[in-house]
Specification:
By secondary structure, this protein is an alpha/beta fold. It has 3 domains: 7-128, Response regulator (Rossmann fold, 3-Layer(aba) Sandwich); 153-316, Hypothetical protein af1432, CATH 1.10.3210; 319-384, no CATH class. The chain is 51% helix and 11% strand. It contains 15 helices and 10 strands. The protein has helices at 15-25, 37-47, 64-74, 87-97, 109-151, 153-172, 178-187, 197-205, 211-218, 220-227, 235-242, 266-282, 287-295, 303-315, 357-363; strands spanning 7-11, 30-34, 52-55, 79-84, 101-104, 321-325, 335-336, 340-341, 347-349, 375-379. The chain has a 5-stranded parallel sheet with strand order 2-1-3-4-5, sandwiched between helices. A hairpin with a 5-residue loop joins strand 8 (340-341) and strand 9. The longest helix has 43 residues, at 109-151. The model has no long low-confidence stretch (mean pLDDT 87).
């Protein structure tokens, strides 16, 4: 089976020139043309992503440099080439739009094909490197999440609930980088591994803490950020978890150097709201009272995030049908509606965890008589 052609966008205000360039490239590439910068950007939104963009410099309405700068913002992985007879304009584009290659008009067909092929190879290498990095980061995050599951089931369950709320809220707000939001939520509770188990459970259920224990809890975000410091390429995630408890606005009379308002990462603003809501839910606050309690503390939240979260919850249906089952009736895809505990009160799995084959394999070591039954779960939604 032949490999799929990479997509190339040609932008020039001379239709005859575009047709000639297309003829030279169509055998190797899937070519799209545009006669202006505005049309080029529209093509990128509608038909992208493109591996390579080849653009003229001297075009009406939007010059090549302006188009290429916006093209880089729209699609960072797209490799940019300048094709122009204006050397000064090419230098400007190289400096401002970080173009890959500069070609002079008129450009011999072999030179054009070689340049576009080199750009396509660079694009392929860039995408492969990014995918490998993403896989490596995902593996590192999963290892840390597994460690958290072993060390603190309460924190692990909270992290998974935060992931669902935070990712859905971020998508509603139009956040492009949902991966960083998801990783931040999963890693937000890693600092809890430093807490003694009894302190972690008292914190989780809202029981009274001693002054030194409260101090440990307050330092958890900073500790979490420090634990992630040695993992490469996690800077955005680390900043989100570091400020996950920072209020949007400072209380009257307070002073501090922590970021506030729009200086806080949007992911941190999302995570704080999701976390505070989860705390209310864990503390058994009635569902109808949770949003009013958050709104009473509106100074702590980004107004736009709080409004979107309120709308999200008002529209949200239960993620599945509620049911009560025995230990041996648990199935993959069910979500725990309550914490799963032994008869002696030891927490095994936290509320909100979706059951996977690995989780079910772990539960097989227990006898039904050891577990508090019935177990409240949410069944997967029925197919429509």
């Amino acid at each position: 089976m032949a490999s799929r052609k990479l997509k190339v966008l040609l932008v020039d205000d001379e239709p005859a020139l575009l047709e000639g360039l297309s003829l030279h490239l169509r055998r190797r590439f899937d070519v799209t043309t545009a006669t202006s910068g505005a049309q080029g950007l529209a093509a990128m939104r509608k038909h992208g992503p493109f591996a390579v963009v080849v653009s003229d410099m001297c075009m009406p309405a939007m010059v090549g440099t302006g188009f290429l700068v916006r093209a880089r913002q729209l699609s960072p992985d797209t490799i940019r080439i300048v094709l122009t007879g204006d050397a000064d304009a090419a230098i400007e584009a190289i400096n401002e739009a970080e173009v890959f290659r500069f070609l002079r008009k008129p450009c011999p067909p072999d030179t054009l094909r070689a340049a576009v092929q080199a750009a396509a190879d660079a694009h392929r290498s860039r995408v492969e490197e990014r995918e490998q990095l993403a896989a490596s980061l995902s593996g590192s995050v999963q290892i840390l999440a597994n460690l958290l599951a072993l060390a603190s089931p309460t924190a692990f369950g909270r992290a998974h609930r935060l992931r669902r709320h935070a990712v859905e809220l971020a998508a509603r707000l139009g956040v492009d980088d949902l991966t960083s939001i998801e990783m931040s939520a999963l890693l937000s509770q890693i600092g809890c591994i430093s807490l003694p188990n009894e302190v972690a459970e008292r914190m989780y259920y809202g029981r009274e803490l001693a002054p030194d224990e409260r101090d440990l809890v307050q330092r958890l975000p900073e500790l979490t950020a420090s634990l992630l410091a040695d993992i490469p390429h996690l800077d955005p995630v680390r900043e989100i978890v570091r400020w996950q408890q920072a209020p949007y606005e400072s209380p009257v009379g307070s002073s501090g150097s922590e970021p506030r308002g729009e200086d806080l990462p949007l992911g941190a603003r999302i995570l704080k709201l999701a976390l505070d809501y989860d705390v209310l839910e864990t503390h058994r606050i009635a569902e109808a009272e949770r949003i009013p309690k958050l709104q009473a503390r509106a100074i702590e939240y980004d107004p736009r995030v709080l409004e979107a979260f309120t709308e999200m919850l008002s529209e949200k249906n239960m993620c599945g049908r509620p049911a009560q089952v025995g230990l041996r009736e648990l199935q993959v895809g069910m979500v725990l509606a309550d914490d799963l505990q032994t008869q002696r009160g030891r927490l095994l799995l936290a509320r909100g965890l979706e059951l996977t084959p690995g989780v079910l394999a772990h539960m097989q070591q227990f006898e039904a008589s050891e577990i508090r039954e019935p177990i409240r779960v949410l069944l997967p939604p029925e197919p429509t």
